């Protein structure tokens, strides 16, 4: 998978760089992030929950910052394990460029490999989920660095999306239960499909 995006942030380049290296801001900005802790020089241990289609899991991994040229660019090398859900690993090259005195253009190109159940649900679904997560990250990140809070409309929209995700999860769970019942009736055993097992995370 390859993903390239650009965003304009309403803060100076130096402030953007500092925020990108602030674990408190990053934890508040990354969707589903539970913890980010220092794990060596320019390295961080990360724990987060994520959903990609029918696959939902808690991932634990590590990020390493390399090729650092403050406050202009660095490369993030990452890897994460999500148990039976699968794994992900890759890198992202991040570049900052000033746009006037009070804005910064952030561009990144990410390359990633996935395996396990994640690799079985289709690249289009995975790409769509990655773009949605990235978009949400930069919306939260921008709010963090400017000290702004989402408008009421955005908050309601976010709540609606969360409710849709919950409804989808419930529908998937019901469908998986029906699938399990059919499978058990056919095999005469109490075995469950991987989808039902994954839905527990």
TrEMBL record:
<dbReference type="InterPro" id="IPR010419">
    <property type="entry name" value="CO_DH_gsu"/>
</dbReference>
<protein>
    <submittedName>
        <fullName>Carbon monoxide dehydrogenase</fullName>
    </submittedName>
</protein>
<dbReference type="InterPro" id="IPR023393">
    <property type="entry name" value="START-like_dom_sf"/>
</dbReference>
<dbReference type="Pfam" id="PF06240">
    <property type="entry name" value="COXG"/>
</dbReference>
<feature type="region of interest" description="Disordered">
    <location>
        <begin position="148"/>
        <end position="201"/>
    </location>
</feature>
<feature type="compositionally biased region" description="Acidic residues">
    <location>
        <begin position="160"/>
        <end position="170"/>
    </location>
</feature>
